[in-house]
Amino acid sequence: MRREMDDFYDTSTDCSRTKIFVTPDEVAQAFSHYSYQYSGHKILICDLQGVYDDQLRLFRLTDPVIHYYSPHKPDKKKVYGRTDRGRKGMDDFFESHVCNALCHVVTRGFKNARESKRPKVTITIDD
């Protein structure tokens, strides 16, 4: 089954419309990667579980793990609960993470869709 998501913007293409195909797992991986980049490398949201809502065209995610680390506040531990492993949790995530096509789209520019002047990208999710 394929699903399309139209609300992602790509900063690396010059064409007016680009289509990339990703799995739900790749969407979750890219979101985790994006959370790390967007937060200035201070937060990583990972261990994402949930379902895709066909009618609303969105993911319903539950029970995320959030890792927090700031080099300016290295003594801050478990800011987001007992599963927050800080820098170690981030390192473990990126040790196994393999960037996918969506990672390259969402980690460039860090602008929300309204601010972006970039071409629209259609994301198709394969189950």
UniProtKB/TrEMBL annotation:
Domain called Alpha-type protein kinase: residue spans: 1-113
Record-level Gene Ontology MF annotations: ATP binding; protein serine/threonine kinase activity
Keyword vocabulary terms for this entry: ATP-binding, Kinase, Nucleotide-binding, Serine/threonine-protein kinase, Transferase
One Pfam short name: Alpha_kinase
Origin: domain of life: Eukaryota
Alphabetized InterPro entries for the sequence: a-kinase_dom (IPR004166), Alpha-type_PK (IPR051852), Kinase-like_dom_sf (IPR011009)
Protein name: Alpha-type protein kinase domain-containing protein
Organism: Proboscia inermis
Lineage, highest ranks first: Eukaryota, Sar, Stramenopiles, Ochrophyta, Bacillariophyta
